[in-house]
Specification:
The complex is a heterodimer of chains A (230) and B (263). By secondary structure, chain A is mainly alpha-helical. Helices cover 80% and strands 0% of the residues of chain A. Chain A has helices at residues 3-48, 54-69, 72-82, 92-118, 121-129, 134-164, 176-187, 190-222. Classes of the chains: A mainly alpha (230), B alpha/beta (263). The structure holds adenosine-5'-triphosphate (ATP) and magnesium ion (MG).
Amino acid sequence: MTGSGTAVFLSELGRALPAITEGLLVTLEATGLGAALALLVAFALGLAARSRLLPVRGAARFAVELLRGTSLYVQLFWLFFALPMLGFRLEPMACGVLAFGLNYGAYGAEVVRGSIAAVPAAQTEAAIALGMGPGLRLRRIVLPQAYALMVPPFKNLLIQLLKATPLLSLVTVADLTFRIDQLRAATGGTAAAYLLLLLLYFCVAALLGAGMNALERRAQARLGVVGGDA
Amino acid sequence: MPIETVPGPEKVRFDRVTKRFGDQTVLDGLDLAVAPGERVTLIGPSGSGKTTILRLLMTLERVTDGVVHVDGEPFSHMPSGPGGKLVPADERYLAPRRRRVGMVFQQFNLFPHLSVLANVTEAPRHVLGLDADEAAARARDLLGLVGLADKEDAHPTRLSGGQQQRVAIARALAMRPELLLLDEVTSALDPELVAEVLDVLRDVAAGTDITMLCVTHEMAFARDVSDRLLMFDRGRVLESGPPGKLLDAPEHERTREFLRSIR
Ligand SMILES: Nc1ncnc2c1ncn2[C@@H]1O[C@H](COP(=O)(O)OP(=O)(O)OP(=O)(O)O)[C@@H](O)[C@H]1O
Ligand SMILES: [Mg+2]
């Protein structure tokens, strides 16, 4: 970039700053709402996958495989382009949140199921010996211990979800990627614009990661794992 | 050999109980009766089915055949339909009945996400519905009994094995069980920690009328607390009798052999 090119880029960047901030907020909103929905889906499908009833278990398995086996990209396009043809029109942002929630929720379901299965059977047996019924055992004994195992994989899924949000710009949502792309078009500073985009995603991911790490340390401290804060 | 008859109502009765794991028969038509307040110790070689008996009573395993009764009522099964035909017990039938039975495990199995106090108050609060203060008061009494009054805020994993097992005993007693099952509760402990746990159990045996069914290799303890010893071999009661008789003058060569092996 030439000296005057840099000046143009910087002045355009200054003018675009409010729009970029807006885009960042849209990206954060999609990440937050998508993650919240994904968490719900993960627990619903993860717990259903452990049901004693074969049809419930089977349906959960099928849903998880279906959602994991079809790409997020296709799911989003299907919600955005195909669903309206069937008479259901969703806001573009809602399409994104739904697609992220279902797709990452399916991956999360495996985390929930696996973490619960990883709590030693002896813990459940101790709870049975204290007269605790199935609901109480799950809620008070198994899930609190499984939670500590869920946080690290959930952290990975959350950051993956963040990194998937640029798909939103393909369905007309003015997210961070969309706004930076506008800046790039206005200035021609492709390298600078995309470098800025990389940095911004990196910072958001680092913040989310730090938050999840704090949760992980707290969960481990509660379980008395050495290395967690007491 | 015939099983001794127990006078009065029975706390526990195994009625022709068979337990198979796959094609391995662990218990084969076992009959067994325990009177209320009786202290019975099960001894016998590894794999003879002692743990299986306790786990059946705690409903951690299901019988393959036969019926387990507690307090004269079916426990492994429940009456169903107009004919009162016995079918395997479901959670709803078991919930109120299981509370009368408590168990202490070889590996303690304390809840690692709860403090010592919370380990003891958890079930009284959420199963019996005690309020927080009542449950805490009960738990503190029991922690005092097991000599851990000063550890209520400690994290269970920070305690020694002997301390953990004493918490587990307090936790089981907090439910005020009528029947307490003890499965080799000192086997996982370093030798120097065994005595502190056995002393607590001696106090419990002396200070309550809880029916106790215990599996142990600690013969001095068995002699002190038991009314009756049962020698198991391959899922059957080989011989039974008061500890003095069974330990000092066993009838069967297998029993003598087993007692020699654990000395
Ligand atoms: N869940 C299980 N699945 C398969 N086999 C089992 C299971 N539990 C117990 N067994 C088998 O049943 C037999 C009796 O086991 P049990 O634990 O009751 O013996 P035990 O008398 O308590 O022995 P020990 O003194 O070694 O504790 C053993 O051969 C064991 O391998
Ligand atoms: Mg055993």
